[in-house]
Amino acid sequence: xxxxxxxxxxxxxxxxxxxxxxxxxxQTVPPLEVLVVDDGSTDGTKEMxxxxxxxxxxxFQKNRGVSKARNRGITETRGEWxxxxxxxxxxxxxxxEKQLHALHQAPQYRICHTNEIWIRRGKRVNPRKIHQKHxxxxxxxxxxxxxxxxxxxxxxxxxxxxxxxFDEALPAVEDYDLWLRICAHEAVLYLxxxxxxxxxxxxxxLSRKHWGMDRFRIYALEKVLAxxxxxxxxxxxxxxxxxxxxxxxxxxAKKRHKTxxxxxxxxxxxxxxxxxxxxxxxx
Length: 283
Description:
Layout (H helix, E strand, L loop, with lengths): L3 E7 L3 H11 L8 E6 L6 H8 L4 E4 L5 H11 L4 E4 L5 E2 L3 H11 L5 E10 L2 E3 L13 H4 L11 E3 L1 H6 L10 H10 L5 E12 L13 H13 L5 H24 L3 H23 L2
Parallel strand pairs: 1-2, 1-4, 2-3, 6-9
Antiparallel strand pairs: 4-8, 5-9, 6-7, 6-8
């Protein structure tokens, strides 16, 4: 059986981390190792992990962000496959077993994700249609927003060598950025079975800390566009989504009277409109 390293970044989530770790150690196929990267917790996380889960490798860093935490986990672990788990989520007991079996049956895939159950403020809710999961060539579906949950993914270590790790310059949507880079080139295996519980609605979620989250997605789209690794069809898809997001972001900036921001992003819009027009003329 292939070896799996589990990486759990956390920050001041002692109680939900306990639930997450419990779900890892209830797996029918145990991982090779479990690593918790604590991003500066002050709530007794370290003491809880060492007292209740002594088999866990615990690493501490001082508030360097979730991307740095995940990247450190990648470099510090040795499994062939890597599974991430956010400290406020939990796995179903057969999550790793079912993914490893599916990947064994379809060895051409190097990344696998699953369906999920959403819990908001203690109640199960149905995801919106825009959050629908997909398998195969999913790059077009990755452009509007992140459709692969880090807690559901099982990813071969080689992909980080080819496409890079999480972008530590991003304070949010770092997963969206990584999936764009990978899914532009890699097919994705999808298991249409909810194998994680994803909890949301709490005050410390990153989406509540930053206004205009699309500016981070704009950055990610600009980056994948500038990579020079997209074909013409992909480039046009990225430009279409980029222009849509810039338009929405500018509207929000205008409402907040952020004049400098409006000016900067209006210039971006003109630049990408010209690029799009030039590509379309070349048909």
